[in-house]
Amino acid sequence: MAARRYRPGRTLVVFFLGVAIMYGLVALAGSWKPALGLDLQGGLRITLTATGDPTDENFEEARRIIDQRVNGSGVVEAEVTAQSGRYIVVEIPGSTENRRETEELVRRQAQLRFRLVACAEGASDPCATGGVPLGRAPLALDHKPGHEGDRKNNEPTDTASPTDTASPTETPTDEPTGEPEDEGDTGVRTAEDEIAWAASPDADSVALFNSLSCTEDGTTVKTNAQGEQVPAPQPDDPDQPLVACEIGDDGRVTKYLLSRSVIEGTELSDAGAGIPQGEVEWAVTLDIGNDKDKAHPKGSTGGEDDFETLSSQLAGTGRQFAIVLDGVVLSAPVMNDPIRDGRSQITGNFTEESATNLANSLKFGALPISFDKDVTTEDIGPSLAGDQLSAGLTAGGIGLALVMLYCLVYYRALGLAVVSSLFIAAGITYGMVLLLSESAGFTLTLPGIAGLIIAVGVVADSFVIYFERIRDEMREGKSMRVAVETGWARARVTRIAANTVSLLSALVLYIFATGAVKGFGFALGLSTLIDLAVLFWFTKPLVSWFAQFKAFNSGHRMSGLSPGSLGIDGPPHPPMTAGGKA
Amino acid sequence: MGKLSRVGNDLYNGHRSFDFIGRKPLWYGITVILVGLAITAVIVKPLNFGVEFRGGTELKITVAEGVDQSSADELRESIADAGIEGAANPSVTTAGGNSLVLTTESLSDTGEDEAEDVIVGLFPSVDRVDDISTQDVGPSWGREVAERALIGIAVFLVLVVLFIWGYFREWKMSVAALLALFHDITITVGVYALSGFQVTPAAVTGLLAILGFSLYDTVVVFDKVRENTTTLRKSTESYADAANLAVNQTLVRSINTSIVALIPIGAILYVSAVQLGASSLQDLALAQFVGMTAGIYSSVFLAPRILVQLKSTETEVVEQARRARAKKRAMADRYASVPAVTRDTPVVEGEPDPDRTGRPARAERPADTDGGNTARPSDEALGKGRVAPTQQRRVASGNSSGRQQPVRQTRSKRGKK
After folding, report:
1. Which of A262, A350, B20, B92 has CB 3.0 to 4.6 Å from B76, enough for a Cys bridge?
2. What ipTM is given for this predicted complex?
3. Nearest-CA neighbor of A500 among B165, B53, B88, B318?
4. Is the pTM of the predicted complex or chain greater than 0.80?
5. Mutation for A interface: B59, B91, B249, B256, most A CBs within 10 A
6. Where are the domains of chain B?
7. Which of A49, A69, A81 is most worth mutating to test chain B (most B CB atoms within 10 A of its CB)?
8. CB–CB of A456 and B1 under 8 A?
9. Each residue of A527-569: pLDDT tens digit?
10. Pairwise CA distance, residues B151 & B154, whole Å
């Protein structure tokens, strides 16, 4: 028993060490002022203009997706509004350091497609001049007849039929096909068809491929009659082959001729950003779902199956497939092994931020509409008058002072424990807000600040419950030192139960809500956890420590636990029962 | 001070007790009237949703000579004071170095003209046609946000119901807590509608905070109720008595908590409403202030009351109430049946004393304290005090005169000497 004696002093020391470490981290992070929200500090305002004439539905859908993108990654309270059916205005708090990155996140259409590489042209190896497709076709053609038989009504437009007879060495330019005209209508294509197509692409596509070239920034250009290069943007249509460029890690531009889309971004069930095991670079991980309704080539059973077909047929052949985002090839990897669970990843020269942004864009889906390339970006000021913040803080300060005064008057010396606990809780909250605004982009808005002031009530309530318990125990005749412990045993249970309710509400709001409500849930959960920590590791040990002093445990008039303050020194009550207390 | 703490002590040991549980018509009546008033208020004066929910008009003003924060503040005040319909709560921000963005609720054409008048009055260099562009803005808190928030609330309520059920092992406590929550939310919304303040995201945030707080406060009171009705059960207490004692015992805590929690919010509400005028601070503070007050009220007056009502039909509770009543009656006057003998009592052999009935007649018992003529089948079967058991069979003559007879107990039960 003696060895396990409760040592309040030790807990206090450990607790203060923890607080000191937290402030050490804050000092490392280097900012001593919390990031303020849109209403208090202003921020960045990005105005996007829709191209074409989108329907209201698509427009609202786009607004929703952008909202999820900017608010999806953390607790930033950004606002996204639609204006006059043409503009989408995004307001992000704080001075965003990397504007281009943010603009890109907002504007990016995020249409992700998996296509097969038919022709690739590096700076050193212009494959198309030789007219030989990269593919080693026969491998892919083995299953063809069987699949032909499965398909029912697409014989007239069957684009794969020429490849049945085509020998791999035949130059594609000689192939007489009517493909470009037939494509895009009712043809039901499967992943196998695309693999076959990629092995020997049709002539028109190859001609197009040869007529285009890539610039440094990854756009396709055409050389016109005067020898000038004019931009020739290629429409990223899932049902058409595509000529696209890739900007490699070293800035080298590669041109590709790609098949029709095999897997669409809409088939992804999840996307995330992380550093794969054993590697140093950030990557975006993709998880392709197997939903038949969403499957892109309409005849296929689902993205995961397609990906399996793709990977098993391409594995070991050295043929490439390409991951295309908004018409630009992100990467064109080679399959090493068949992948059966639909998981893959995109590597490239990602930073943490760009990987996270891309993952968010992919996760929340592609925008149904596209926006003009030039976006208006401007800094905006706070929407609340400067006097509001100071007035709110003053009011909160006055309120806090009154609370402390009340506690001191009512609980006398025990009130000291309340006051110091409130200060400690305020200190920890401030430190946590600093840390979180640095690491998670947490911004304080005026409601947030008011919410934290309001949390004072709940925090103070934990002391009220505890002290009232101690008094109740003492009224039953226990000494202070005993009452502090037995009262704690009971108050603890109450506190945990009550705070669980608060935590539940915070957690659910954080998970389900968006924007401002999310931030609020976050602040609520934070203050609840801090309340518990302060109560368990500071207030309780402090009161236990107080109890060792004679001034307290002898029932001094100022201790707040004297018979007078407990009300047990009053005149004896008239007996309630004739026979005395049972 | 001493007086208040003495009250606290009396409340704790039950010497003084407010009857929160017993006066059913009073507290239910008050609650029903309050909730009814709140609902009427919302119907009569519907909530006034802000730009964030309904969209509005945005005017972008280019000021050639440049703008700073103070010009934004000036414009905000002038627009707010101009009394334009729909522009009572404008929001103005600077955008870039030389333009201002003014957002109001949807303005009519005349409203737009009036707003432009104000703008030109403030910034004479602004040209009405070239420098002011008007856009309609859609809601930033559209249906999407509302739907997700509602799903969140539904999930939260289900989880809380399950939690309270699991923690107290009593689903009736979940129901009582939910009803109390409904009461708090309704009253808060009603008062908010009455106040005429605009519903802003801040107000919604405040309301969501009330969700947690109301349940939190109820759990604190219920925790004491549970403690009193299980671990500290006395045979003289019915469930209702124990619950009432619990509410009384936590009353001091409730008062202290309400003071401590409401002071800071009250301060914010006062400063923002009286000194600042319309602001998101005021919306939040009002929602919080009303909600917290209602939450504390309902956890003292309403939730335990509902709980007792729900429990009152349980066999065990009914049994306990009956036992407690009988015991109390017995305790009230233990020696009622003992004849009062004084020194000068005349000893009259065989002649009954008119003042003294060996066995008081039934009619002499105090009339039913709880009114009504509910059946109390075995009130009399306890064999204690003045209540004699009903006759089951013929009683043989004995010498005990109906008094309780001393019983020789075993040594272990006799206690230490």
Report:
1. B92
2. 0.70
3. B165
4. no
5. B256
6. 2-48+143-318, 56-137
7. A81
8. no
9. 888 888 888 888 888 888 888 877 776 766 666 666 666 666 5
10. 5
